[in-house]
Structures are given as C-alpha cells and as structure tokens.
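Why run this: before we spend reagent on co-expression, it is cheaper to look at a predicted model of the complex and decide which construct boundaries make sense. The entries below are exactly what would go into the expression plan.
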Amino acid sequence: MTRILEIADLRVDLSRAERRVSPVGPVDLWLDAGECLGIVGESGSGKSLTLKAILDLLPDGLTRGTGTQKIAQGGRLVPTDPRSLRGAKISMISQEPAAALDPLMRIGDLIGEIVRHHSGCSWAEARLRAVDLLRRVGVPDPETRARFWPHELSGGLKQRVVISMALACQSDMLLCDEPTTALDVTIQAQIVDLLRDLQVNDGLGLIFVTHDLALIRQIADRICIMYAGLIVETGPSSEIFSNPQHPYTRALLAALPDIEQSEGRLVPIEGTPPAPTAFPQGCRFGPRCPRASDVCRQTAPALLATEDAQDVKVACHHTGDVT
Amino acid sequence: MDRGRFIIRRLLQTIPLLAGIMLLVLLLLHVVPGDPARAIGGISASEEQVDQIREELGLNRSLPVQYVSYVGNALRGDLGRSTRSGRTVTSIIADRLAPTALLLACGMILSIALSSVIAVISARNKDSALDFALIGVTVAGISIPTFWAGLMLILLIALPTGLFPINGFGDTPLENLHSIVLPALTFAIAISPVMIRALRAKLVDLYRQDFVMMSRAAGLSENAILYRHLSRHAAITLVTMISVQVGPMIFVSVVSEKTYARPGLGEALVNAVSQRDFPVIQGITLVTALFVTAVHLTADIVISFLNPWMTLK
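The model came back. Tokens follow.
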C-alpha cells in the first residue's frame, strides 16, 4: 500500500484564548491509497474539527495550531500547505447536503464551476462533464437534473450532487464529515454503497468521520477512536471491534444495541465528556473510567502499540491488564 | 411558466393599488381643515372668487363623481392646472422631472457602489480594527441629518476647491452631471449606511454557510466565491433594501434639492405646499407614488429572477 497522506501533531486551538486551549490534538493520522479510515467519537470529541483542520477549513474562532502534513507527490511524501490541497489533492463532503449547495445556482452550474476551476475547460465542456459526474454518482436522468435548482432535489440526491462536486476535483482523497447523518436509513445505505464503490473501483482514499459505530464497521478498513480531542485507540477495524482495548472503546461497544441479543439492557457511559477548557489532568477519560487509578489522574497516557497486536495502538495506562 | 405567472399576478396587483393611491391623492384636498377652496384662495379672497375656485376644482360635485373624473383625466395625462401660475400640472412636472430623475439615478448608483464596497471590506475583515472603523463611519452616516451633510459638503468641498457648483442644474448634459456630484453624494451619505449595515450582516452570515466552506474545500478562490456565489445573495439583499428605502430616498432627494437649490420635483413640491397650490401638490404626490409603486414592482420582478423559489408560493 502506498501512503498518500501523513499528518503529525495536528492541533486545533481556540484563536482568542488567554492560554492555549486545544479542543483537538495533538493527533497523528495517515492514509494509504484506496483505504478507508474511520474516525469515531461522540459529539464534541473533535472528530469533525480534525477533518476540517486537514484542509484548514476551521470555523471562526478556531485556528490550526501545529501539524505537519505530508502528501504523496511523485512517489515521495512532501510537506504541503493545507490550503493548497483543497480540491487539488483532497476534497470534502459534509453532513448537511442541503446547506452544502448554493441555493441560487443550478446544480449543473455548481458542478461545472468546479470542473472549470480544475481543468480550465469551456463552460460547454464543463456542463457535459457535470452531466457525466451526475451519472457517475447515480443521479437518474442527469441531463434534466443538471438544470434543477438544489431545492428541487431530495436529500439523498443532494448528497449525491455534493459527492459529484467533490469528484469534479479529481483528487485522490475524500474527507467525509458524517455524510449520512442527515439522511434516512435506506438512503444512508445507498450513499455508503456509492462511497464504497468509489473507494474500491476508483481507488479514492476516504477519511470517514461519524458517531455511527455500525456504519463505520461496514465501511472502514482502519479506525481511530477519538475522545476529548485525542485518539485513544486506533487499529484495523476488525481488531477494534473484536478485541477493543481502551476502556472508552469497550464502553462504546457495550452501549451498542445488539440485534441478536434481545435480553439485557444497554450499558450507558456514566458522566459527560469534558469541555475543551476543562480537560482533566492526566487521562482525559479518567473521571469516567471504571479502571482509573492514581497514575491515570496524574499523567496522560501515550498512544502506544499493544503487545499482542502491533498494528493496534492504545492510549491507556492499563493496557494489557486483566479485565 | 411559474415566473411569467408571478409577474402577471404582480402587475395585476398594482391596479387596485394605483386606484387606492389616486383616491388618497384626491382626498388630500378634503383632509385640509375647513374649506379647501377657501384655503386655496386665502383669507383676502372674496366669496365669488372662492366659488369660482370651487367650480374650477369641481369641488361642488359629489366625491365619487370627482374621483371618476380625476382618474379619467389622470389617465389622459390631465392633472389639472396650477392655481398660482395657471400652467398645466403635467407641464410643470415634465419641466422638473429631469433634475430629480438624474439625482435619484445617480444617488442610487453611488449608494449601491459605496455600500457594496464597504460591506464587502467590512465582512471580509470581520471584527478587525478596519471593520470597527467602517462601522463607526456608518453609524455617523446614519446619525447626520441630510441637510447638514449637504451644507458640510458645500462648506468643506465646494467652496474651498471651487470644483463643484453649489446650486442649479446647468444647461448641457455635462453641466447636469457636474451639478449632480455633490447632491448625489449627499444622497448616498443618507441612504448608504442602512444598506451597508444590512449587506454586511448578510455577508457575515453567508461566510458562515456550509456552501462557502464547501466551495473553499473544492479549491475555489475567495474572489470566485464572492463574485459567483455571494454576489447573487447580496444582490437580493441590495434590491430588497432599495425597495424598503424608497421612501427615505424621496425624502432625501427633496432635502437635497432644497439644499442645493436644484429645480427639481422636490423643490417644486415644497414651493407648492407653501403656496397651497393643491393641483401641483396632488400631481407631484401622484408621480411620487407611481415611482414608489414602480420600484417595488421592479424589485419583486428582479428578485424573482435572482431567487428560484420566490415564485413557488
């Protein structure tokens, strides 16, 4: 597998805080060609901000702190300015397809504009390419639909249009910020199938952010579990789901309903995640962790490879302890 | 098509509106306390003269009859005669129209240009010192009375430099344009601030929208986002603001004409009011009301082209 993206020490800081407050990071990420990396966490864990920081698209009030970002170029990994990657190497789809489309432009023009920006072709050619892209993402009757306004499309079709706009960039990586959250379940499945198809057949690398564990299990090859702005566990999807190491990952999986098992109750995680201004000292999950000890309250655990599975990394002082 | 039907419906709606406007204009004469004919003639007029005025104005007929004949005459372009000069109201309006139309047109263009530039700079540099400075200037603009702004322009620009005439309209098109500079600037100082506030707020809101972030993510430049996407949204706000501000615009143009002694409709109106020249007052009021109606109508039609879902309702 060829590495196409490598990010080290990525941090997101509050722009106007007196002392440094980092809702995210430092975080290390990488992505291989044609791979799907899933980033999972609850609301406020910083998974979406991590994704936006990759393209330096953070909302007002937040700035990308440190973070070196290397991109494959001619077979080598080269440090690159995040803004120069936008659309060129990395494109993005978002959570709310209705808000991601400019309501005052026909969808053919929305796609055509991006095609033109990246290829410099004529408008006529860009329109033809737009229709091709709509067909590629499975929009029925693309010639007619290209003349539609965004408000004339259903949510699922809007998300397909957003994906076709991302494809118009012809980049190697697609950042997916909860792309199915706003859609109903059957449409969710269709969009996931489409993304899967793009990953497998077009070799598109995906970074998929979601809080939906069942969904991530279907699509991701590798998973990062985020809690309070840090990655607490990462490894191949199968490993994480079959043999979770971090207490938070275990708690997450225990909170998941199981269709096979109709007996018993779901186990919630006690407490609430901390705010970025009040991250606890030591392990950030410590106050909610059943296994927390003195060392957890004093020093933050590093993300280290486990003894039994080299490709799984866990940030816990008690890794390997008998449960 | 939807838009065609929307425009036709909107045009039809103006018919009852115009009928109502004409009724109000006619009633102008009757809401004056006391006898309108006596009010026109003044205290020194004899009873016969007052009767004659009443006869001339048709005030001895019933109101519905007066209304029908007023509307009928107005449709034929007959708005009566001035009780002072005896000239037809239509010819007075025709004489006075050019300076006012030019002032409104130039003032509006200047206001739109000024508001767009300042609002974009302000919104792009949100919360910076520059933004706060521009907000300060805008608030000052809202607070300054129009006549005072006009006098200050005369005092600080026209008189020291001698570059601009301070009164009149000029005879050649070039002189007309030269004479319009300061009045149009006065107009813009009065009208732009509210437009700047509205536009800046709109742009700040737009910059927070997902589709702007997604356009950035797709690699589009800030200028491409501004010119191809945000400009359409901003245009809707601008057109709306113009139609909302058309009342203040008329007021400002009257004050501006008076300040710079321009022979326009506003000046004629002020003179007619002080001379109680009712047919002229009615005529100019009617023309003004037509202008307001036309601006609202045009604004709605323009927005229906900019905004694809406006015609849905």
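The mean pLDDT of chain B is 87. Chain B touches chain A at residues 126, 208-211, 213-220, 224, 228-229, 232-233, 306-309 (CB under 8 Å). Bring this page to Monday's planning discussion.
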